Structure formats: C-alpha cells, structure tokens
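ugh ok fine here u go
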Amino acid sequence: MSDRIPKAKIQAILGSIPNPTVVELGAHRGTDTEWLYAACKGKVTYLAVEPDYRHWDALWAICSPRDIRMVSFAVGAANETRHLHLAVTDGVPASSSLRKPATHLDAFPSIGFEKAPVESVVKTLDRLMYVHGVQPDFIWADIQGSEGDMIKGGCGTLRKTKWVYCESYNVEMYAGQMLRPEFLREMSTLGFEVEDEDRDNVLLRNTLLLPPAQDGAKP
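structure:
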C-alpha cells in the first residue's frame, strides 16, 4: 500500500460503517486481514478468500480466533475449475494468479512461477455472496489480474457495495487482464467513482449509495 492511499484512510472508512460486512479477495496469509478486521466497529461479518493452498494454515490462524469465514476459492467470471499459476520466491510466495504472468516477470524479477499450474475452484463474486448469504459494504480485492473477471461475475454484488479497494494497473501484469482505464469505465457503470488512487491501487466509492461528503469532509 502506498503513501497516497494510507492505511489510516481505509481504517476510517471501515470504522464509519456500523456492523460492517467486509469481503477480502486474495487474503494471502492474513497480514491485511488483521488490521482490516481490527478497524471495524460493532458486529463484523468478514469473509477472507484465498485460493493458494500454501497460505491456508497461516490464514486460518488469523481467521479462527476472530470468527472470520475463510474461503478457499478463487473469484472469476464463471463457476468453474481453472489453472492457478503458483508464484515462487525465496521468501513467502505471493502473486499467484488465474492468469499467466506477463510484465509481472519484468516488474518483479525476484518472483517466478511454477511451470505446472494447479487446479483451483473458481466462483463468481455473485455466487460466492449468495452461498454465504452476505452483501459486502467494503471489498478489498487483491486478485492478480482478475479484476475484469470480478466485475463480469459480480455486477449484482458490486452495485450494492459501498466501497471497493482494488489493485489495478495500466500495463498487463498478467496476460489479458483488464487495464485501469477500462476497469474504471466498467466500475463507473455500476455507480463507482475514484475516491483515491496510486500507481498500483484504486479506492472507489459507490455514488449511488454514498453521496459526496458535505464541506469536503471525507473519511
């Protein structure tokens, strides 16, 4: 997370939502899960979604004592089984994706990918929310090139979501991913506008659900 979208801003937004429902897509090992959950007030409903099996034990250790629901699927455009390209590095692996790496290999030369992908169950965002019986107020999406697929399979959910924080790039980090201009156009059709952004991420507010704050006062 860059300095342009500081953690404090996200914490303030979450703290302003009574009894929030938060969905974290790409929860990895729970590093962000901890502080996102801690920022919430009241009765919290939280789903942590992570398809890479190598992170499940560490993520479960974060989720279990907090009564966070852990979901071991990937989010995509359809309910299906797809290949998950596993990232490898000397440290803790990250950046695994349903899409083949492209310029990610140049941008992060220390991160490689296994030659043989593994199978992963994929659910649409709409299907996942239906199964768990929730409607998120806030979505944190770190889904490694599947941003357009999230929209394609999640329009019903996104239209009713107040805030979305999502990784988004102007170059193809992964083959065929939706680039930021198109991503913002698609999200605008669902009511979202940019609240803040940096090189790698955008924070979006649903203007159909959240009118602009008066006198410039924002979370």
